[in-house]
Amino acid sequence: MKMILAVFSIFSLLSLCHASVVDFCVADYTAPNGPAGYSCKKPAKVTVDDFVYTGLGVSGNTSNIIKAAVSPAFDAQFPGVNGLGISVARLDLAPGGVIPLHTHPGASELLVVVQGKICAGFVASDNTVYLKTLQKGDIMVFPQGLLHFQINAGGIPGLAFVTFSSANPGLQILDFALFKSDFPTQLIAETTFLDAAQIKKLKGVLGGSG
Amino acid sequence: MKMILAVFSIFSLLSLCHASVVDFCVADYTAPNGPAGYSCKKPAKVTVDDFVYTGLGVSGNTSNIIKAAVSPAFDAQFPGVNGLGISVARLDLAPGGVIPLHTHPGASELLVVVQGKICAGFVASDNTVYLKTLQKGDIMVFPQGLLHFQINAGGIPGLAFVTFSSANPGLQILDFALFKSDFPTQLIAETTFLDAAQIKKLKGVLGGSG
Amino acid sequence: MKMILAVFSIFSLLSLCHASVVDFCVADYTAPNGPAGYSCKKPAKVTVDDFVYTGLGVSGNTSNIIKAAVSPAFDAQFPGVNGLGISVARLDLAPGGVIPLHTHPGASELLVVVQGKICAGFVASDNTVYLKTLQKGDIMVFPQGLLHFQINAGGIPGLAFVTFSSANPGLQILDFALFKSDFPTQLIAETTFLDAAQIKKLKGVLGGSG
Amino acid sequence: MKMILAVFSIFSLLSLCHASVVDFCVADYTAPNGPAGYSCKKPAKVTVDDFVYTGLGVSGNTSNIIKAAVSPAFDAQFPGVNGLGISVARLDLAPGGVIPLHTHPGASELLVVVQGKICAGFVASDNTVYLKTLQKGDIMVFPQGLLHFQINAGGIPGLAFVTFSSANPGLQILDFALFKSDFPTQLIAETTFLDAAQIKKLKGVLGGSG
Amino acid sequence: MKMILAVFSIFSLLSLCHASVVDFCVADYTAPNGPAGYSCKKPAKVTVDDFVYTGLGVSGNTSNIIKAAVSPAFDAQFPGVNGLGISVARLDLAPGGVIPLHTHPGASELLVVVQGKICAGFVASDNTVYLKTLQKGDIMVFPQGLLHFQINAGGIPGLAFVTFSSANPGLQILDFALFKSDFPTQLIAETTFLDAAQIKKLKGVLGGSG
Amino acid sequence: MKMILAVFSIFSLLSLCHASVVDFCVADYTAPNGPAGYSCKKPAKVTVDDFVYTGLGVSGNTSNIIKAAVSPAFDAQFPGVNGLGISVARLDLAPGGVIPLHTHPGASELLVVVQGKICAGFVASDNTVYLKTLQKGDIMVFPQGLLHFQINAGGIPGLAFVTFSSANPGLQILDFALFKSDFPTQLIAETTFLDAAQIKKLKGVLGGSG
Questions:
Q1: How many CB atoms neighbour CB F196 within 10 A?
Q2: Where does the record locate the signal sequence feature (chains A, B, C, D, E, F) (predicted)?
């Protein structure tokens, strides 16, 4: 009895709180977001399922031109990672599959090969190219903001999970930025030295305009 | 006269602002909060009392089983510290009093002994135990996230102020996490190797279920 | 055709998002702000003009006592810098112009001289004074939170752009803090050792009270 | 020819550098380390193998009492992650295997189940317990510094990769902190309310003293 | 027996480390320091005394013109706080004592009154002055980088502990920056509007030159 | 006399320091660097010239294929910005000059047009292109890590200063990464969909191999 009081008297000191910024800040997609992430769901409404993401158990659809798929669980999809500085995506690479050259503007990436062989690489600011063919269980890290890619290097489907040092790493795919956008062809030519014919050809494929 | 204009002409440049994120962000508990803390109260509504917390001048209630009390002034209680990366709590330790083993998930702690003698310690990741009996005026720092405790080591009431490297350090008391929760006894046993009888005994004392 | 599907099947994975915290967080001045900055404008409403600030093309009004003007483009004026950790201001210094001793509580400053000669300096915590007369094209950096100043050191108008390591650096002008406020004269005297007559004289000039 | 000059004249501006803090800071274990991590290896000595970790392709040894193994690739083992705010470990859980209750003082954790079923859970500061049985491909996030565990919940070996929001997350295993250390039995009893007999029994098992 | 192996087989995985950046980074004053703090002492050389500071148990010498003393335990004096984002100082204020107007360029400050009455205040960027007379046990927070002061407001010696949101907050005392330095009198006059006579008078008192 | 003691007795408390991490950390290029930047030069050896960079007063050499030059003052060139989270570069754009498409992996960029007209743009992760022709005095911000460019849009030489939210922003020029490196032509083709002929043509121009 005295014990109950005891516990109360400590604990009450810690519970006379407003909806507090506690151990986590599960995303509330209905409230405003800011530079640090989404607003926090009221703790009373948080359940374990906010911390669990079940979308990555199945292969993404790789019946496409790149024979690959990227399935993200960033803060926009996975409310539990909001504000925690980490997120994840699933990579599926069918035989011949490629994740085209891309960057994550706001995060470093760590890749774990779960199935198959993957050839991966990145280019540093000094234009050094770092390339490696990775086996099942190998890990590779890609420093923040640098151009990198992954290619299936085996005869079987490749599977990898990539995690990021941010809940919102972003993803800028080079070809989409140039050829799936309305980036004017002449400006692309002037700023990349690519031939206009090449640019127009790829815009035709990827659906870019301008 | 010309002077007045002068001052205006500089100052106006700096005052054509929206409710600005200025030097501080006093917590507005009525608006959404995010990973970085609470929303900011409109500067016009801020008063000096937002920066002053008067709740810690009196002893917490130590007539309880642990003969101790923790009185926090974190961002949920003290609006002025919101976003400033610092907060404080008062520790009262009656003779024989104990602050049980606990962690602060999001902050390092700095303890200042104001009255009495306090035996304090923490355990590092390599399982080294750092123990010290502290005198009045002594300072001890507890690195972020590590298990630590404080015990009254004198015959008189002990008083300390603990400050944190976060406005929202959190507080996870080991016994409460295990025995004042609905953590299933079998799972506790499997993940701590404690005997079920021991677990049930402490759940009985602290009011845990499962 | 197959291509179109292809692109969709990748891209859709990345677009089933809520209004996402993406590459940037353009300030929405109508929503709450927090310690990390303003809420983000919905991406669909963002335009290039949110990232462009055109107010600094013309000289500020220097027909004032200090013969100088500071024109800020901080997050409160320039929505595109919200959350990006950078901002800018234009300094105009007529002949004889002075930017009085001041600090930026939350940022380091980098000054670029665009026209004229500017004598600049700062004082470090150990009371060392760092002074330099800067020519057109020279750069000087002022570490965070330290007292510093700029003075026109040529016969012609001086122009500089100063950038900051924060979207909201703040600006505390020493004379305004002391003499353009309601800081009681006696308290100023006690905490600065300045003579009351000196304090009252400058309050008269700058419009302070108390 | 003119071209070559051209390229040089741009590039030289960017290469008159000292051993620069560039895109990454591969750990040099022979130089001093600091709060932000290890010193950087000279860029000229960096190879792709600094960014690749091959130690996690094989199962850890689970022929032990917990029928489990944790194989870390933190900055102390994996030089390429130094300073990048991310790291990884492999979890092997034989049937009946358990990763005992533990915390990571400096990081949030994201778990990806690669094989088998895993029951995982964490306890929040308010003593709420979040439990879930995870299937192959499921993701769970554990907020920074909170007590959590993983248990094999299937009849087959479980495999998971856990990544962290720090290159140096730390790992404090509760039982090791209490019972594999020289934490005096009486102090453990006073700060956890565990019976001395229980403490001594587990110290006997785990090799603790005091 | 089997158990011992068991424990070893887990633990060894975590101990095949180089001198690791672990839970803390106790300052090694003999090695280089960097922007994040001092280099780390080898874990094997760390003792509990690195985390305990005993210098603040006695009053600082207040037999001086300001009848006050500031006794810091920053990372340069207290090796255990290096890299932990927190530090502390003791303030002694004899009757009539004053801590002159000053700033901490790199940290917010939290003051706890332990004895006596203290009148404290700070000035915000918008020149609002926030003043309060604090009683024993009251807390006041001073946002980063803003001018603030403390004055004994009682008839008895005042004692306070101030903690900071940085291991290295810095301390810039306004009068020392202006009048205990070699800041040229003419430049001070031009950038503060103070009369040359006033400046020279205070330089005479505080020992400034120029 | 008493005064002198007075000052000493305060100040001494603040000066019994080791080479302290004070207000700044001027780069010492002879000591190891780490993730947070270079080691700090001993305060006694720091001079005002460490905080001043005079290299940007003159135009870079634009007699090259892109008719442009980038002159950086990053921490590797400008020791005073080390650890301060800001740096700068000068852009010279002769008529017809172009800064090719590039990213800064670790920083946001703020551009100030000082002379001429500049057409600038960036592409966001959702492939939206933000384009603007900037006049003298206009400011544009480029969020971290996104592809962007600048082109002279007037008949006269263009001059701009760009500042960054990091002392070490990095610079990855797309064409150099692809065509001035040893990135194998086949891998570029597979990861960009560019025709091999196009790749080889540009490698011929820029000096790439593979």
A1: 11
A2: 1-19
Is A18 annotated as belonging to a binding site?
no
Rounded Cα distance, B73 and E71, in Å: 24
Phi, psi of C58 (to 5 degrees): -115, 155
User: Mean pLDDT over residues A80-103, rounded?
Assistant: 98
Cβ–Cβ < 8 Å for A196, A125: no
Q: Which residues of E touch C131 (CB under 8 A)?
A: 184, 187
The pLDDT tens digits along chain E (210 residues) read: 333 334 444 444 443 334 444 799 999 999 999 999 999 999 999 999 999 999 899 999 999 989 999 999 999 999 999 999 999 999 999 999 999 999 999 899 999 999 999 999 999 999 999 999 999 999 999 999 999 999 999 999 999 999 999 999 999 999 999 999 999 999 999 999 999 999 999 999 999 998
Phi-psi region of A180 (alpha: psi -120 to 50; beta: other; left: phi over 0): alpha
Separation between Cα atoms, residue F12 and residue F15, nearest integer Å: 5
Domain boundaries, chain E: 45-170, 177-206
Token pair 């102090």 is found at D187
Q: What are phi and psi of F84, to 5 degrees?
A: -95, -5
Q: How confident is the model at residue E151, as a pLDDT?
A: 98
Task: Judge whether D100 and D83 are in contact, CB under 8 Å.
Answer: no
Nearest-by-CA chain B residue for E79: B141
Query: 């961002």: which residue's tokens?
Result: B75
pLDDT of F19 reads 41
- For the record, the structure tokens of E101 come out as 């107007």
The pTM for the full model equals 0.93
Angle between helices D2-15 and F196-206 (to 10 degrees): 80
Indicate the SS3 state at residue F76: coil
In 3D space, the residue among A65, A66, A156 whose CA is nearest the CA of residue A113 turns out to be A156
* E70 interface with B at CB cutoff 8 Å: no
| Contact (Cβ atoms closer than 8 angstroms) between residue B132 and residue B149 | no
- Expressed in percent and rounded to 5, the helix, strand and coil fractions of chain A are 25, 35, 45
F175 in reach of chain E (CB within 8 A) = no
**Phi, then psi, of A190 in degrees rounded to 5:** -70, -30
Cβ B163–E110 below 8 Å, yes or no?
yes
What would the pLDDT profile of E101-147 be if each residue is shown by its tens digit?
A: 999 998 999 999 999 999 999 999 999 999 999 999 999 999 999 99
Token digits of residue B16: 């054509």
Phi, psi angles (nearest 5°) of residue D74: -95, -175
Alpha helices in chain F (DSSP H): 2-15, 174-179, 185-192, 196-206
- Backbone φ and ψ for A205, nearest 5 degrees, come out as -70, -45
Q: Find residue F121's DSSP bridge partners.
A: F131, F149
Task: Tell me which residue in A34, A69, A77 faces C9 most closely, judged by beta carbons.
Answer: A69
> Could you tell me the CATH superfamily of domain C45-170?
Jelly Rolls (2.60.120.10)
The pair of structure tokens assigned to D17 is: 């550098």
Q: How far apart are CA B128 and CA E26, in angstroms?
A: 15
Residue type, B133: T
Using the structure block, give the residue that is written with the tokens 């009525």: B30
Interface check for E202 against chain F (CB to CB < 8 A): the answer is no
Q: How far apart are CA A130 and CA A148, in angstroms?
A: 9
Tokens describing residue A84: 């925690």
Look at the block and give the residue holding tokens 């309601």: C182
Start-end of H helices in E116-208? 174-179, 185-192, 196-206
Contact, D66 vs D97, CB < 8 A? Answer: yes
Chain E touched by C205 (CB under 8 Å)? yes
Measured CA to CA, the distance from residue E140 to residue E144 in angstroms comes to 13
Alpha-carbon gap, residue F203 to F175, rounded angstroms: 9
- Please give the sequence-ordered ranges of beta strands (E in DSSP) within E16-86, or none if there are none: 27-34, 37-40, 52-53, 68-73
Angle at CA A91, nearest 5°, toward D73 and D115?
Answer: 60
Task: Please answer whether residues E163 and E104 qualify as being in contact, where contact means their C-beta atoms are separated by less than 8 angstroms.
Answer: no
